[in-house]
Write a structure and sequence with these properties.
This protein is an alpha+beta fold. Helices cover 38% and strands 24% of the residues.
Length: 203
């Protein structure tokens, strides 16, 4: 392959890729505009509101308070959750709170495909919960590297309940829990552990 062919192939690949991105962005923009139009019709036109299919969805805030609203079937769960956080979640928690479901005290986070699904996927009255992720650093022995786990928890969970959840992870005899303040995306280290405050059972 000579240089002119190589340049042509590179340019063609770049064009196809950029063209694809443009079309995807155009479709996404059109979907947003359609959703906005339907939302306006839903709010302002009673007849349209009766014709468009909808169902009730409940979101439970970090303190266990349920909020139930009717949503149109075409609305995305991710869009609803974003608006829900803005309207109902305290600002200092908005970056930390995530959405999931709970069954038999087991929290199941929503994955990306579930977040991009529409209301129509869920039955009327479906309930979502909000939770936070607790980063746990486990040290078995001083000569063994610490292992880090991420545990989904409710803000109302007591320390004893969290300890029970931790005991479901790889077995170890004693548990000590400490808390410390860090940036959202920072990793735990020895200094965090040394400076952390140890939790008591009644915390």
């Amino acid at each position: 392959m000579d240089n002119s062919t190589a340049v042509l192939t590179t340019n063609l690949t770049s064009f196809v890729y950029e063209d694809l991105i443009f079309h995807v962005q155009t479709i996404q923009h059109q979907m947003i505009e359609i959703a906005k139009y339907l939302d306006d019709q839903w709010k302002n036109d009673k007849k349209i509101r009766e014709e468009l299919k909808s169902r009730s969805i409940t979101f439970v805030d970090p303190y266990g308070n349920p909020i139930t609203n009717k949503y149109m079937n075409h609305e995305l769960i991710s869009t609803l959750f974003k608006q829900y956080k803005k309207d109902y979640i305290p600002k200092y928690l908005q970056n930390w709170v995530k959405i999931g479901t709970i069954s038999e005290n087991v929290i199941s986070p929503l994955d990306d495909s579930e977040l991009q699904s529409t209301v129509s996927k869920y039955p009327d009255g479906y309930r979502f919960i909000t939770y936070c992720e607790l980063s746990i650093l486990i040290e078995y022995r001083e000569d063994v590297l610490r292992q880090q786990f991420v545990l989904p928890v409710l803000l109302t969970d007591a320390i004893e309940k969290i300890k029970m959840r931790i005991q479901e992870l790889p077995k170890f005899p004693n548990i000590a829990l400490k808390s410390f303040i860090s940036d959202k995306d920072s990793q735990m280290n020895n200094q965090n552990w040394s400076e952390g405050r140890t939790f008591n059972s009644d915390d």
